[in-house]
Write a structure and sequence with these properties.
52% of the residues lie in helices and 18% in strands. The strands form four sheets. A seven-stranded mixed sheet has the order 10-22-21-20-11-18-19, with helices on both faces. Strands 2-1-3-9-4-7 form a six-stranded antiparallel sheet, with no helix packed on it. It has 647 residues and is of the alpha+beta class. It starts with a helix and ends in an 8-residue tail after the last helix. Helix 9 runs antiparallel to helix 10. The radius of gyration is 35 Å and the shape is elongated.
């Protein structure tokens, strides 16, 4: 709208400027005489005011109704004073009218708003990018095995859809058939494709790789993860932070300051040269140059860029105030399970005695545990799958209740189990394996033995494996001067082992979920600014209690109500990125507010004519140009935020 009106008004302004007596006098030319030429300037000026100026008057009405005058009120006042005064001069001395200043002022105002809206639109492009991820149609499988092309809006939970290679997933779902790798970069920020097989979940908008998938729909429309992400980004951009509230208050105060300066200017110029075009010109210049565009844009544009930048990095901001507060955090409290650790059992160490190798022993244990759904069995299978190769053949599988399992391999009897299995069999572990088990027990690990043909030949330590990124994340937090603490319901030994491995400053062990928020409250009572990082479910009270609540691993559940910030990836390093983004965003807000405020401190006295004794006076059009220039500077400075290093 601003763009279209700008170009129309600019075209109509050309004859207004050309046929203005003042412009002709300045540049020493005479335009061609036209019938009724004396009316070209006022008639076209009225058209420009009605077409290009009335939108500002309409936008000022809500400000006045709310009794919160701002930039639109100032613009409307400036162009209205200029318009009414110029029309009044037609009955007296038309030479005193400044229609050309009025139309160029409106042109520059339209241009400034067009550039402002364009900058905000570009900053908010994350929402458009997310919306474009969703395909319009889907291939739904019919009962007879064929497919039909339907609108995504017509999909229902339970439908089976075909996702061809290179196609976008039309809805959240679970893989029913097929294997492939999906690019989830647009959702999680992770560039590496993610392998998917039957039973795995897929997110709407992600892009399929080379394989063909049949997906059972679990969520559609507004219930999908992508829709939830868009909702969070939209809400974050619409919400007000403390800094923006300050900017809005400053813009309102500026309105009254501008009126006061305009009144003083009118009195001073009327006393000096009498009431006339000169006095009105300087009053209009004061009103124009004080328009708080830069001040009004200083924070919202930074916020729009921040939220879109965060969304592309897998960081979803639900509460902008919390993002601002993050820069003041001096202690980060991590939940252990599922946050610093993988939240599932994994083989973390292994040892075998000659002639066995640790990998050969692991493959045999995984084969023995092949049919079990126990968490320990799954851990062995995952570790063996990572090694590759064909699994050994085992037969005669038998479960030994409370002790372990038994099977046969190559005619030999194989047992797998813990210390109670050794008691049952009456065998002792070799010294090396006994030492390995004692060390694992001290670390809180679960130790599992492989007994082959009556002898202990290998042992494995299992634990909730630490995420590879956790150590680096904590080191980076320490580099920022932030203390790190850990909350866990696990035993003292387990907590101490994990804290020691990661270099965590403080840990709280054997803490029940309902008591976690008490630990946060105790830190706050000691004057600490606390960020809590958890999974957003059993950590909900602590997340709510903390100054900044950060839910990790929210890729398929972005509506965690207890958290202020949701990290799509289960990556503790994204916590560091939150603090980096908070600091960079606040720095840009502060720079923009200082520029916008400083500009008005200098510009208002100049507009009033403080340098008039030395022949320096600003016209309304030049004032509008300065005002627009300040807006562009603020917009450009905000765009530099895109270059902020979050890693």
């Amino acid at each position: 709208m601003f763009r279209d009106r700008f170009w129309v008004c600019l075209a109509l302004s050309v004859p207004v400027v050309v046929y203005s007596p003042m412009i002709q006098h300045w540049f020493g030319f005479t335009p061609p005489a036209l019938p009724g030429g004396t009316w070209i300037v006022p008639v076209l000026s009225v058209v420009i005011f009605a077409y290009g100026g009335l939108p500002f008057l309409r936008m000022a009405a809500p400000e006045l109704r709310r009794r919160r005058p701002g930039m639109m009120t100032l613009i409307s006042l400036a162009i209205s004073v200029a318009f009414v005064y110029s029309l009044a001069t037609l009955a007296g001395d038309p030479a005193e009218a400044f229609f050309w200043e009025l139309v160029t002022l409106i042109d520059i105002m339209l241009l400034g708003h067009w550039l402002e809206m364009r900058s905000i639109r570009q900053a908010s492009g994350a929402l458009d990018e997310l919306a474009r991820l969703m395909p319009d149609t889907a291939e739904r499988l019919r009962p007879d095995g064929g497919t039909e092309t339907v609108s995504v809006a017509d999909l229902l939970v339970g439908d089976l859809v075909l996702v061809r290679p290179g196609a976008s997933v039309p809805a959240d779902g679970r893989v029913a058939e097929g294997e492939s790798s999906l690019s989830e970069a647009m959702i999680t920020g992770e560039s590496r494709p993610v392998a998917k097989r039957p039973g795995d979940t897929v997110i709407a908008g992600t892009i399929n790789g080379d394989g063909s998938l049949r997906v059972a729909v679990t969520a559609t429309g507004e219930a999908t993860s992508l829709a939830g992400i868009m909702r969070l980004v939209r809400d974050a951009q619409a919400s007000k932070s403390a800094t923006q509230v300050l900017a809005d208050r400053a813009a309102s105060l500026l309105f009254y300051a501008a009126l006061a300066v305009a009144l003083v200017t009118a009195i001073a110029w009327t006393a000096a040269v009498g009431f006339g075009a000169k006095a009105v010109t300087q009053v209009v210049t004061v009103l124009v140059i004080s328009c708080p565009h830069a001040l009004g844009l200083a924070v919202p544009l930074v916020v729009a860029i921040t939220t879109s930048l965060a969304a592309r990095s897998g960081i979803l901001v639900r509460d902008r105030l919390a993002l601002e507060e993050a820069r003041n955090v001096d202690v980060v409290v991590f939940d252990k399970t599922g946050t610093l650790t993988m939240g599932e059992q994994a083989v973390v160490a292994k040892l075998a005695v000659d002639p066995w190798t640790a990998d050969t022993a692991l493959a045999l244990v995984a084969a023995v545990e092949g049919d079990s759904e126990h968490a320990v069995a799954k851990a062995f299978r995952r570790a063996s799958d990572a090694l590759g190769g064909d699994p050994p053949t085992v037969t005669a599988f038998e479960a030994l209740k409370g002790r372990g399992v038994k099977a046969s391999h190559a005619g030999k009897t194989v047992h797998v189990g813990g210390p109670r299995l050794l008691e049952l069999l009456g065998v002792a572990a070799p010294a090396a394996i006994a030492g390995f088990a004692a060390d694992g027990g001290a670390r809180g690990h679960t130790v599992v033995y492989l007994v082959y043909d009556g002898g202990v030949v290998a042992a494995f330590a299992l634990a909730d494996a630490v995420r590879p990124e956790s150590r680096h994340a904590i080191a980076r937090l320490h580099a920022l001067g932030i203390e790190v603490a850990m909350l866990t319901g696990d035993s003292q030994d387990v907590a101490q082992a994990v804290a020691g491995e990661l270099g965590i400053d403080t840990f709280f062990a054997q803490v029940l979920p309902e008591h976690k928020d008490q630990k946060i409250a105790a830190l706050q009572a000691a004057g600490r600014r606390v960020a809590m990082v958890g999974d957003g479910v059993n950590d909900a009270p602590a997340l709510t209690r903390a100054d900044v609540g950060i839910a990790i691993g929210g890729g398929t559940d972005v509506a965690i109500e207890s958290a202020d910030i949701v990290l799509v990836r289960s990556n503790p390093e994204d916590v560091v990125r939150v603090f980096a983004l908070s600091a960079a965003s606040y720095r840009k807000m502060r720079e923009n507010l200082l520029w916008a405020s400083g500009y008005n401190v200098v510009a208002l006295p100049l507009a009033a004519g403080i340098l008039a004794p030395w022949g320096i006076l600003l016209s309304p059009a030049f004032g509008a140009l300065l005002m627009s220039l300040s807006t562009v500077i603020v917009a450009v400075n905000a765009q530099w935020l895109r270059r902020a290093r979050l890693d």
